[in-house]
User: Fold these one by one.
Assistant:
Number 1:
Amino acid sequence: MSLIKTVDEISSNPRNRKAWLALACVIFAVIIVIPAVYVIFSIPSNWSGIQDVLSDSAMMSIIWGAIWNSFSLAFIVTIIDIIVGLPMAWMLVRKSYRFGKYLDTFIDMPLAFPTVALGFSVIVFWGCPEGITVPGTGLVVDPYLMVILLHIIFTYPYMVRCLSGILEQIDTNYETAAMTLGASKWTAVRTITLPLFRAGLVTGFILCFARSLSETGGTYIVLRMMGATTLDVTGFFTGPTLISTIKDIPETDSMPVLILISSLLIVFALLMLFVAKAVMTRLRIPWRKVWPQFGRRVSGRKVAGTKDVLAFLFALIFVLLPSFYIFVCLGTEGTYSDYGGFLGAVGASFLVAGAATVFDVIFGVPVAMYIARNRGTKRAELLDNLVNVPLIIPTTALGVSLGLFWGQLGLSSMGMLLVIFGHISFTYPLLVRNLVGAIEEVDPSYEEIARTLGAKPFQAFRKVLLPMVKSSLLAGAVLAFTRSLGETGATQAIADVSTVPIYIVDLINANDYFGAAVSSVMLIAICFVFMFGLRIVISRMGGKD
Amino acid sequence: MPVIRMTDVCKRFGDAVAADRLNLEVEDGEYLCILGPTGAGKTTAMRMICGLTLPDSGTISFDGEDVTELETAKRGATMLSQQYSLFPHMSVMDNIMFGPMIKEWDPEDSKKIAANLLHMVHLESRSKERPTHLSGGQQQRVALARAMASGSRILLLDEPLRALDARLRLELRKDLKSMVKSMGLTAVHVTHDQDEALEMADRIAVIRNGRILQVGTPREVFDTPATPFVANFVGRSNVITGKVSSREGDTISVDCGPVTVTAMDPVHGIGDDVVVAVKIGNTRISKKEEGFFSGRIERILYEGVSITVEIAVEGLGLISSKLPNRKFDDYSEGDEVSVRWMPSAASVFDIPECGLEEELRVE
């Protein structure tokens, strides 16, 4: 109590408040932004090594191939997400099918699955990997296509969420007005509602693109089990999995290669963010031209119904079934006994995720408040854009960058701490983004009135603002926590800390597929119990209100 | 002894001037209305009183004690906002107890205070409900009780009636003032609604472009406006310009192009350019008697209790006259009528430096 009271007292001095904000910004810069892009600035000092790599044409063709794969994959996956996510979002928001509520919950589930588990599940479902007795469909043998199928699963929920969020905010009155003016349903939606979607599309595009670009663990497992991770012309890589593979080769000085790949990934990713924003805000949905006949024909019940069925079937066949297929593996024969190792990994995972989330909350809240309450000022906009940086950078590249930065400062022996720092980097934006949105919804007059009633600034925050944004804060924290729990690439790139995803990758590398399946299922179970428990806590807290 | 004194207070937001050497005194226990158009600096003035906005220069004092730099929490000036800002996550009772809880008063005492206040605002039966379940009027009463419970002696009301239905707004004017008075508070009420200010205020301060133009009782502000702007903003006026042509005692004649009008004015000399303003309610029309000038009725607006007749006068433009509604049948559009007023009902001003049109502009 007395600590809180001291903070109350301290908060009444505006100079202290400024100092606290400044501290949060400095920490944001030093722990999150600067280490994330440090690798680019390390190029000059490693130039001779990098020159060797640049002159190694076999290596270079692998690198360029990997980067091309990463970006083209992310682009294709995102476009597919938009095409199939839109009807699904539409169905969830505007239609009231009886199963809609369950669908709503199911769509989110792949988000709770660690991507390594998803990767395993997907390869077993679509392919027929050797050494596994579970019958898959055996339809897909091309690594490129397989990775697309995998990435759709964990980007699709983001897209659907993003689009349905916007859709809920768009007033149906506009559409109704267009229809009373003589437009068919299809024409009304296309010319009125879709153009209003643009902001949501940009956010969804960037989120999905970044997520796909960043993913390491699941992709690595898929490629490893397809035998496509040999460092020669027969291999198939994405940028992050190339980093993982090179890192695993013992006793060579791979640093220059890693620096080169990471820098290329980071630079292209940031360029991509820039270009995506510019293109999407200028993109014009052709709303001036209308095809009334065609519009009327596709506005019929039959077409709408078919569209809904297709959207549902897509979600079922390409997202839900492959995700849950891993449970089938449990029925196969095999032995797994390394529960001690698994529990140790779970402990490490929870420690990292917990520490990162707590840090995010403590230092993310002041930054989120500043951004939300100073909208339109240059400083707030700058901060807002900087928060997005770690979100778009592939986490494996981020890990390499981070390892270099802290290693330079002589901290490379403290592996666990560095892994936590790494996880802070890519979870921080998730929490801050969520919180900024929530705080913007709350009228600042609540806090102001509280202060005129005698509350010190920190009291006003604690007793008034915090209870009002509590659920968003918790949702952001859960998002950050599960994201950290499922991360492979960053952990691998930073240090030798065996979190659960790393543990599973190690099992796969040792060809213990059954063990990997069991561990994946156990990890999924733990995630679910954890999220379920949190959901109960949240609804309890909500119920009290 | 004045409770609140603002001395030479200045505040700018970028290029916009919100307070320009603003001076204002509010007496102990007084109900003062700050009246002005949108963007005049009303809300800024109030936010500076409670410390949510800090002035660029100048001082603010309560009871002679300088509070310019004092933090909001310690000022004892509570704000009541347009939307009342009742904390949605707390019950009515908890909202009222917010001030005492924050200040850590004895819980038993504070409960008694809160119970008393709830009784006073007639909401005992709803103490456990969420504020969102209450009607607008009830929410306002809770907000008022919450402000009282915090022990503040100064209440700042930011357009407190704006969010209510038109009908309720009229009824609550009386209630709000009598509650504030019975609790012995000093109140500063910001509004852009002149009727509200005239009806509720002990004194009105008319503000524009961050400057106080006039402070006085409603009657003073209405009957003897200090500037043409005040004359037109507080109760509409017919405003015409002319040159003083002759004087008989305190009564002057003013040449306004084709017509000549008279007004009571001890100051201006013959040959001075002046502005003459007459409240439309004091502007009389007649079909039989002689007036200063005559014109043709363009339009008659039926407004319930009153009617407004608009008369086109050659050389002057439209002149309005507000009459009781029983006169509605006496006039019809196209009638020729004469216009006049009591010389004592007209106010005479110098021509404003910025020009008359600029002076009268409301936005």
Number 2:
Amino acid sequence: MSDRLGTGARGDFPLLGREMRGRPIVYLDSAASSQKPRSVLDAMTNYYETINANVHRGAYEIAAEATEAMETARAEVARFVNAPSADEIVFTKNVTEAINLVARSWGGANLGPGDAVVITEMEHHANIVPWHIMADQLGFELRWIGVGADGQLDLGNLDRLLDGAKLLGVTAMSNVLGTLNPVRRLADAAHGAGALVLVDAAQYVPHLPTDVQALGADFLGFTGHKMCGPTGIGVLWAKAELLEAMPPFLGGGEMILDVRKDGFLPNRIPHKFEAGTPPIAEIVGLGAAVRYLDGLGMDRVREHEVSLTAYALRTLEERYGSDLAVHGPAEPACRGGVLSMSFRDIHPHDLSQVLDDRGVCVRAGHHCAKPLMRHLGVPATTRASLYVYNDTSDVDSLADALGAAGDFFAR
Amino acid sequence: MAGLEDLYREIILDHYRNPRNRGELEVPPAVQAVGFNPLCGDEVIIYVEVSDGVITDVSTGGQGCSISQSSASMMSTAVKGRRVAEVRRLVRAFKHMMSIHGTGIGGTGDDLDDDGDGGNGAAEVKLGDLEALRGVVKFPVRIKCATLSWNTLVQALDETFA
């Protein structure tokens, strides 16, 4: 395990210096949003203090510097996910906007009655509701790949589901189960059936080395705030030829080459999809986040998380046995560091309340995955999620706090 | 910082472990309403039967945390057998208690205090055991848990008289 990860990384994150009720904060909710390293905060402050100006307009020096900073970040993000070209990186607000962009723009131009879109039962609402909305408008069919008992996708009837489908939407890693889905295999099957592939990589890009070309994706979305970057900035990566053919999404400034009273000429990609003044400081911050993660090394980040997940699964099993269920794959190498737990009959809201009393930050709820919750037969789960700054002491604190919650509600 | 004992009073845990008026009523004559807490996925189902302006029967279903379930249970015992007008005053008094200094910190525009008295008229209503839920206000994210069944009761009453 690299000494830059775990305890070694904590000093990079100012918030983790906070105490909660006299104890060091135990932050185990990075799947919802990660903490930010000093270098990201400094990059954003430096942007505002030295080169703040609107981009792609203005002939003066700082406007050119702001544009340069934004486009440098775009190139860094492209390299981080091995995109063939920075022109394929469209900045959005988050993954939700990225998927809505595809559903509205590509979907609006390509889907209609008789067509089908295939998604999975373990999708986040962000990769479900946009398709519901467009299915209502356009009359295509929404089909579902189910989830098996082991937290893996049930691919038994994949060929039948893909027959006649125009798009397959799949999460690369479940935000509830931690399941790492076989994206390449799914992409090959989808392409064989003539369908495109959209990958929700919100939980994947922050945690594993990502190569959009090796994954076989056509569209892939991820978000800054889960990968050490700021909120308000996400990315849609898509193949250039798809972006070229798609109609614009939002209209306004920046996304045009010419506007006349009788129409407009859209800008070249990626600007065609970036209407209005972008979140420039956040884009600069995302660039710094990518540099920070590169400095750690994404291979090492993954190794660290596999090792810590294994420790967590082992510790929880040893301490609580059958009183505690961790949903999703049992094998750490097949999953991410997302531990969705059901503990005795304590409701997740009550459990997380007692954990919070001990400074342990976890997420309780349905995790924006209600179809999956219904499949699991639970109203909610308590989710602890691991990242670069977590170490075994955080897992121990979680295990201790679970014990305290058990005692509290056994009164 | 409020302690857990402020939130989880013994009477609350008792109602959670032994919920009163749990089950279903026949619809009609009863009216059913479903309330959701989108934050945590909790669902509460309230059945209410009204006759001659009196709530003759009430029943609760659904799933949720100790606060939402105990609040539903306590609500059911507090409203059963009482006049609807009286119950509406009780709802206002309860929701007033569930807002910090009556300013509605947990307010979401669905505030039921629509009689223009700023909740003052609610002050005379006796809350009894419901006072045990007062500590919830110190945990703002839990206020919605406590008010879920009350909002759903109002939905059911509104539907009864729709």
